[in-house]
Amino acid sequence: MNHDTAIRRLFAERFFLQELTEDECGAYEEHFLECTACADQVKSLFQFIQHAKELFAADTLESFEDS
Predict the structure, then answer these.
(1) What is the mean pLDDT of each run of 10 residues along the chain (67 residues)?
(2) 37-44: long-range contacts at Cβ-Cβ below 8 A with a sequence spacing of 24 or more?
(3) Which of 4, 24, 28, 45 shows the greatest Cβ crowding within 10 Å of its Cβ?
């Protein structure tokens, strides 16, 4: 897989959402192990979700404390 195809077909987002076929997933994993731009994109998606979970957990905690 080349980088342009990965970007055009939204492979990082689809990988993250587990929407790729088994073959697509394998091909994309091979690609992002060699492509720092795609690896960074996947890493950023996982970090975003982790930060969002932490933010919502803290916000929920504060809501209970304010009651």
Answers:
(1) 95 95 97 96 94 80 56
(2) 37/3, 38/3, 38/6, 38/7, 38/11, 38/12, 41/12, 42/12, 42/15, 42/16
(3) 28
Within 10 Å of residue 28's Cβ, how many Cβ atoms?
A: 22
Buried b (16+ CB within 10 A) or exposed e, 43-60: eeeeeeeeeeeeeeeeee
Record the tokens describing residue 14, joined without a space. Answer: 């689809």
DSSP state of 20: S
CA-based angle 18:42:54, to the nearest 5? 90
